[in-house]
Design brief:
3 domains; 609 residues; Rossmann fold; ABC transporter transmembrane region fold; alpha/beta
Length: 609
């Protein structure tokens, strides 16, 4: 099975390169003869000089012959190195394309996969394969080495066939010894690799991912304050030391195993060379070969062994490693459904949304987050979602906007089952903001409009709409006071001159982005968590005005902010425990009333202070 998978991966990678960059095969075809000629001439040149001297040729004749061979050798080496460089650079371009494919997979894969632990494990291993970081260090081949390895293997095999032809004239026994030695060394290396891959491959990938995460956190400008104020540096450096220690432990175990293989290899080399030299000396003393032939075969023996072990055998081993990497990459790329590029106009009319017996559990989880939810939302209705942390509020919003798929029941959008719609058709109905605030390292204008400069028309109409959304989000004044205004760059980690906004300001910018999209359904999942109660209330009043004719959902942990909604849903234990207006829920005297009383007491206590 493993051999079939490896061969299938090899064939798939060759087809991939043929589609992306056919010229690499031309470079390989030119490399092949240049490699063989260059290697053969280096061995033949000493033999020719001694042979010419034995035949007592003139100095001029010998000089011209040597000059001609040296010139041919130089041309062959030049062509070989040129093609080798082109192959390496071309394969790096292929590797870059694979890195783009990896990124596109993460961008377009169904959102549910991003919360699937199996997919995330595959992502870690694929990232390790195409960006580096595998255990084995410099001794391990990577995807960017595929074409150079294949071409070198084919060329080396051609050279081996030529040398075996000559060596067979001395003794077939030497050829048998040679193949046995190389087979033994290769078997040991492959066995060691498979053992390490099986025992440490997944653990190494996980360790590398953790190390990469912690390292990125130490580089994150937004964490600099916390790291200093809470003295987190010793803790972070401790984690880095721990993960580096784990990786070094993997490396130590691998090097111990490889050391055994290298010892066996050196022993077998000694056996082969002793056999070759002994046989050559016997034939020379018997008068069967000349001095020039002794030199020729004495040089050919080590060259042949090097080709078999360091070129043919070693590169077969490298290709086995590369196919393992490619198999990881392909498994990741084939996992789940991809949406592809989406280009659908935003649907601005307010839809009705119905949930029929909807349940959801995350992949690999035994417990359901939501259980048998039934809900009807009229077109243009404003619905608040409240509840304690972990009640399933955000999960419910992800289901409603089509990011997640119900594991039970169905969701109807204007009467149509959302599972029958393409992703772009579902997303066209929604403008959303979630708790995690993320920006691209571009201007405020580009972050709000989600249109890159140079793409589409940069118009005053668009800027006017952006300013209006910034006003509704409560941050227009701050942006107007900036020197670059809408051209102000974000994300200081990337842009040296970027603006460092506060948490509350960042949430307002995200809110402005959702308002700019202006879809028929607006989902705000605690977009003002970093704001104080007064600022939040001000924004919600503007939100209520903006969302007058939209179907809208508002998730909040501050119950007083939900009064303007037509209906309030309280989630508890994965179910809709209470439902009604603010006044109705207070009058019911249930969970909502208790939560509201606790929050009111907190704010009243704060006022007294």
């Amino acid at each position: 099975m493993e051999k079939t998978v490896t061969w299938s991966a090899f064939r798939g990678y060759v087809e991939y390169i043929w589609r992306e960059k056919k010229v690499l095969f031309l470079y390989g075809a030119l490399f092949f003869p240049a490699f063989i000629v260059a290697n053969y001439l280096q061995i033949y040149l000493p033999k020719m000089i001694i042979m010419e001297l034995e035949e007592k040729r003139s100095i001029a004749y010998v000089g011209v012959s040597v000059l001609a061979l040296v010139l041919a050798l130089c041309l062959a080496i030049l062509l070989r190195e040129q093609m080798s460089s082109r192959l390496k650079y071309g394969n790096r371009q292929i590797a870059r394309k694979q890195q783009q494919d990896y990124t596109n997979k993460l961008l377009y894969v169904d959102y549910g996969c991003l919360e699937d632990q199996e997919f995330l494990a595959m992502r870690n291993m694929a990232k390790e394969s195409i960006f580096g970081g595998s255990i084995g260090g410099q001794g391990r081949a990577h995807l960017k080495d595929f074409m150079p390895e294949v071409v070198m293997l084919v060329a080396a095999a051609g050279n081996v066939i030529l040398y075996l032809y000559y060596l067979s004239k001395i003794s077939f026994l030497l050829i048998l010894v040679l193949f046995f030695v190389v087979f033994l060394g290769t078997s040991i290396n492959v066995k060691v690799f498979r053992k390490n891959e099986k025992k440490h491959g997944q653990r190494s990938a996980n360790t590398w991912q953790k190390l990469d995460y912690v390292t990125r956190k130490t580089e994150d400008f937004s964490m600099a304050k916390d790291i200093r104020l809470y003295d987190m540096a010793p803790w972070l450096t401790g984690l880095i030391d721990e993960y580096l220690g784990e990786r070094l432990l993997f490396k130590k175990k691998e090097m111990i195993s490889r050391g055994l293989g290298d010892g066996v290899y050196m022993l077998t080399v000694g056996v082969f060379m002793a056999s070759l030299l002994g046989m050559l000396l016997l034939r020379f003393w018997d008068g069967n070969i000349e001095v020039s032939d002794v030199v020729f075969y004495a040089n050919m023996g080590p060259a042949l062994y090097h080709l078999l072990d360091r070129e043919v055998s070693s590169r077969c081993f490298h290709l086995f490693q590369i196919m393992t990497e490619y198999q990881r990459f392909q498994t990741f790329m084939n996992y789940g459904e991809d949406t592809g590029t989406m280009d659908v106009p935003v649907r601005k009319e307010a839809p009705s949304i119905v949930l029929e017996h909807v349940s959801y559990s995350y992949p690999g989880a035994e417990k359901e987050v939501l259980k048998d939810i039934n809900l009807q939302v009229r077109a243009g209705e404003k619905v608040a979602i409240v509840g304690v942390n972990g009640a399933g509020k955000t999960t419910l919003m992800k289901l409603i906007c089509g990011l997640l798929h119900p594991t039970g029941g169905r969701i109807l959008l204007n009467g149509a089952d959302m599972e029958t719609m393409e992703a772009e058709e579902r997303y066209a109905w929604f403008s959303c903001t979630f708790q995690d605030v993320q920006f691209l390292p571009v201007s405020i204008r580009e972050n709000i409009s989600q249109e890159m400069e140079g793409v589409g028309s940069v118009s005053a109409e668009r800027d006017e709409k952006i300013w209006n959304c910034l006003h509704l989000a409560g941050i227009k004044k701050e942006i107007e006071e900036l020197p670059e205004k809408l051209d102000t760059l974000l994300e200081k980690n990337i842009n040296e001159n970027a603006m460092d906004f506060s948490g509350g300001q960042r949430q307002k910018l995200i809110l402005a982005r959702a308002l700019y999209r202006d879809a028929g359904t607006l989902i705000l999942d605690e977009p003002t968590a970093a704001l104080d109660a007064l600022a939040e209330n001000e924004i919600y009043e503007k939100y209520a005005e903006f969302a007058r004719e939209k179907t809208s959902f508002f998730v909040s942990h501050r119950l007083s902010s939900t009064r303007f909604c037509d209906r309030i849903l309280l989630l508890d234990g994965g179910n809709i425990a209470e439902e009604g207006t603010h006044d109705e829920l207070l009058a019911a005297g249930g969970i909502y009333r208790k939560m509201f009383a606790m929050q009111s007491k907190y704010y009243q206590g704060g006022d007294k202070e």
